[in-house]
Structure prediction request, 738 residues.
Amino acid sequence: MRFICCDAERRRACCEAGSISKHNNTMTSSQPPAQTTLLIGGSNGTSTLCAILGDKSKPQNTNHTLRVATRSSNKYLDNGSPRTWRCKEKKHLSDVVAADFLPTRVFTHVGAPDSVFVYGKSNENNTNDEKPNNNTPYNLSPLEQAISGISAPDNGGVADIIILACPVSAHLSLLKRIAIAMYNLNSKNLLGTKTRPPILIGTLYGAGGFDWMARIAFTSQRPSNFNGWDRSLGLFGLKAFPYLTKSLQVGEVTLHGRFPQLQVAVTPSTPYMRHRAGLLLDRVLQNSTTGKSLEFLGLSSNEELGGDGTVVEESLVLHQNNSSSGGLLGYGVGVEGVNSARNAMLLAAQTHKSIKEAKEGAASSGAPSMPPTMTITSNNTNQQQLTNITPNSPTLDLLLTHSLSDHADPNSSLGFLTCTLNSTNQILHPCILVALFGSGDKDGTITWNPKKEGTALPRFYADGAAKPLAGQLITAIAGGEMYFVLDALERLLSPRGYDPITALHGGEPVGRKVMNWLGNSPHELGERSGLTGLALRKEWQSLFGKVGDETGSSSVEEEEDESSSVGNVPGLINREKLLTKLMSMGLSHNSRLNAVLSPCIVDESSKNSPDGTIRIKPNTKTRFFTDDTQHGLCIILGLAELLGFDLERDMKTTLYVVRKLQAWMGKEFVLPKNKSDANSNGKIVSSARDVAETSAPQAFGIHNVQDLRQFLRLDVFGEMHEARAEDRLKMSGLVSRL
Prediction:
């Protein structure tokens, strides 16, 4: 180990404006800028990225330092050194439709991370990694070393982007660890200053209320003497996991395919934060080689994604043809050259000055005047003399100013809600589990004959999704009950005319188009069911009282008429039988999914049966349960409850699936039917014994729409802006006069 943080940071400062030649330390533009990526977790996604990003023979990986922080030391270390991973990637003719009969190529990636940090043992309650290591400068823990780069056996410096590549159920515990480490590094001034670009923290799969978890983690771990972050932070979450990958052997991983769309939510919702996230994530996701592009979610997204198009305007300006304009705004450098807030401010000020002088010159003499020479100072004290700059467009104004959409939703809460509420796995997996094991014993035990069926265990999609019940359950939830929640919630939270949540309903783009064509969009189902109107009226009543006579009360007859005409009734979904067949057929014949086996536990005593039949039951310790029940379906039910829906009437299929799965798990995430009928008072979620183990809003203390709005206004990194403003007010001269 060696202390290299300062040298690495100086090198990074040079590389961010361009690249440094290894031979003569001169600035070049042929190499990509420096980037340090930290992967936290031991999932198959981490292994895949180790192979792809760790391949130093690829030019795009030049100046890219890759670190891994994990508890799986045997998986990512080989005799004390970072393990080399081999990834076999199947490249289909199209990522939208992958089938065996279509041409498929196979590529192999071989690479290893630059350094690996083991931050704890497999025991979740173990906190050894949070204890300081007296053998390192500043007595940092392994995770703090991985973030700061201090004593790291690489040249990366402080991590630019921290990625949680892990199950959704691990998000809260890992964010808590990250919060502890970040607060400690911040107190020791080891993260850098505000002149450095922000550090991005996020996940490759933003389901389960990822930004909600960040608020809890950073608020709960905030030190009493915390006064703010020395270096800005940003949070991001991808809407869909970008890879379909599987590893059956340490050092070997197969990438069966990539998700067709890359969409991400980012907070703070500012042009510069989106730009920074785009630069870092494009490199992590290899967009320069795959041809894919990153789309941003939320109110500022493009109009096809339900936003106001702000991001499109930014993209048109920021990615203009530099070759024809001499670089960004004619300055001769790209946005990458703006490597500090100070430089950005200088360029923005010069932009305004140039435009003003051009206008004044045109008014007085009929021709624009040329602005004076401008100097940009980078962190390594080098200076670039930029002369005769006349900007073609106010690019950096976009980097430093907010659109109305960013002001309306500064935390991009709607963007993150899009990730949380449009997660497909959290619906598909539970429904297939019920179809596959629901006809068995009380604990889900069924029989299986490997010789007769041809596979050791049931194939999850090829066998489970092929059952008619799977298509029925998925269609009823994903194309019905969930849509009621999507539409009502968006009407209550989004500005009128924008729909960043419902615009991306259904997960897959092909399925979304089919549902819209059949008249089954969330808006249409919300209107046909009357549940959106019901949620809006209940919200009005909670704020201003019941709508009715002059006393403010509605009649019993009106409430009874409403209950009989509103709700989830048969026939709401157009062509429901056709959709159920297409759903089962599509999932069971997907070439990227047909080899996936079901999560099972084999009854050892049944292995000696004469005909080879064995008894198996669902393995409730896998992420098919721990992720998809607590952090998927329970969120939908919790939101429906705070919207005022009758869960037994309006969410009956979702309730049925959760009750079946929780019985196998020995949990109570929602009240069982017998308790619900007795004394639930409509609080089927909030009154459940184990609701705190879920990501339902009720686990966060949120029980109505107003609670949700207030919660979403909190800063995701524990900043106390209102408290500091109040402190300044208390110390003001005017207050002292009172």
